[in-house]
Amino acid sequence: MSRKPAEALLIENDQHDKRMQKKIHSQLEERNQNRLADMQNKRDEIEGEKVTEEKSDFFSKNFKNEIAVIEEMLNCKELNISDRAVVVDHFDAITASFHRLRKFFNDSVMFLPKFKSRKSMSQLNELEQKINAKRAEMIPKKKFAFKSKAKKIESKSNISNDPPATGNVSKAGAMVAKFSNEFLVKDKTDETIRLNEQEINQRDVSLSNLKNCTIFLHGAPGTVHISDVEKCVVSIGPVSGSVFVDRCVDSRLSTGCQQLRVHHTKRTDFYLHVTSRAIIEDTSDIRVAPYNTNYPELDSHFKLAGLDKSTNNWDKVDDFNWLAMSTHSPNWAVLEESKRITEQT
Fold first, then answer.
1. What residues form DSSP beta bridges with 275?
2. What angle do CA 39, 42, 44 make, to 5 degrees?
């Protein structure tokens, strides 16, 4: 049995020692890296807990303040409760504030402790019940009553000699029904209808079931209700109260008002002078632009309606179906300037 020379054994042992030293050094380095990583993770965890605690404190402070603001609004101090339109606007503002508060809670719930999350949810539910109860108290539903036929008066509206934007003007005139303080235009197709200040100033005007019509309301109505309108152009002077729009499709509306409420509406352009924020619900594909109506008596009608011409929130829209305040609602957009229409009547 041959033996390795002593010199060869020494070389072999030296190489083995080097490999062992390298392995040990690598293990020590890996252990040190793991230790440093553990230390960093602990620091991050402590910092994360601190940030979460700060976020939770920020939420608690602001959540409490917002609830206090809404409850103060529910006291209805200095509110002209005799003016239904003013009361409705006030509660619309309360509802919008409540939706923003709920959105704030939903965005914050991920870092809230469970007990704080449950408590906040309970407070929201309680506040919502208060809002609904107070709204029912301050804005009772109108009782339904049949109107006496003897009070019904039919008259002809003023008809323009100019050709309408669409269709023909009825030679016999558009039949307009007047009920007490309400002026009603309904069930019309392919007509142009003009109502002046003597007919509509400070009155409630209703437009219903209209198709392919052009309507001019050049006065200062008290409120305007628009429903079931398709492919129409509606030009409205300054409204002292609210404008309510429901089920409007493929149309163009121009109005000045204190408050605009839009429901179940699609593919419609709104040219607005609105002193509060417009509210939309169950509505999509609408565009907004500044008020474009112009006629000789417009300035005097602004004064009669009590609208501030210097305040126009035409591009401030609250979408009750879109609560992600950090991103823009896909249901409405600002109409490009190049596509806006200047109305001269």
1. none
2. 110
Name the CA dihedral angle for 84, 180, 245, 160, rounded to a multiple of 10 degrees: -140
Domain 9-143 belongs in CATH node 2.60.120.230: no
SS (H, E, C) 49-81: HHHHHHHHHHHHHHHHHHHHHHHHHHCCCCCCC
pTM for this predicted structure: 0.53
pLDDT surpasses 90 at 207: yes
Q: What is the mean pLDDT of the chain?
A: 78
Is residue 248 within 8 Å of residue 263, measured between CB atoms?
no
Domain(s) of CATH 1.20.58.1250: residues in the chain: 9-143
User: 17-57: per-residue pLDDT in tens?
Assistant: 667 777 777 777 777 777 777 666 666 555 454 445 566 77
Residue at token pair 């917002």: 66
Cβ-defined contacts of 324-333 (< 8 Å, 24+): 324/103, 325/100, 325/103, 326/107, 330/284, 331/280, 331/283, 331/284, 331/285, 331/286, 332/280, 332/283, 332/286, 332/287, 332/288, 333/286, 333/287, 333/288
pLDDT tens digit sequence for 129-164: 888 888 888 887 655 444 433 333 333 333 333 333
DSSP secondary structure code for residue 158 in this structure: B
- What's the pLDDT at 248? 97
Q: How far apart are the first and last CA of the chain?
A: 121
Tokens of 151: 């009070």
Amino acid at 116: K
CATH 2.160.20.70 corresponds to the domain 149-339 = yes
